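Quick one, tokens below:
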């Protein structure tokens, strides 16, 4: 029996559940909105509010605690510098959950979870990867041309 055990398990063990919540929080802070199931969003919401409240402090200790959980310095700096000063007098309720409908495969309720009053985070962050050069196709074309000549 689960007497005195608070919180949802999400059909996962402790480590995988914490990794799931960490990834949901990282994606939400990076893109401003995510699409997930309602159960996951409801479990992640209080955690994200606690992280944003921690980021509001802006102290070195708060940054270290955020980095210990998130593991990404760029997201921590973005939280402290850009995202947290925006909500003004808001003390809680930094996220909004909007129902999108049921998923066809398993009937799970799909929701869009987004940060409240953060208009510039709605655009996706551009990837930092360099574009790949297609050297194989270029070489192949020159070989074909040489053979036909």
């Amino acid at each position: 029996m689960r007497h005195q055990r608070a919180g949802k398990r999400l059909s996962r063990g402790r480590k995988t559940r914490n990794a799931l919540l960490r990834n949901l929080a990282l994606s939400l802070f990076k893109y401003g909105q995510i699409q997930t199931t309602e159960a996951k969003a409801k479990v992640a919401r209080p955690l994200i509010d606690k992280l944003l409240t921690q980021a509001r402090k802006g102290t070195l200790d708060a940054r270290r605690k955020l980095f210990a959980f998130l593991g990404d310095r760029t997201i921590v700096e973005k939280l402290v510098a850009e995202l947290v000063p925006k909500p003004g007098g808001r003390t809680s309720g930094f996220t909004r959950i909007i129902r999108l409908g049921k998923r066809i495969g398993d009937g799970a309720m799909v929701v869009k979870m987004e940060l409240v009053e953060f208009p510039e985070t709605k655009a996706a962050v551009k990837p930092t990867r360099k574009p790949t050069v297609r050297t194989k196709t270029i070489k192949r074309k020159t070989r074909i041309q040489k053979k036909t000549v």
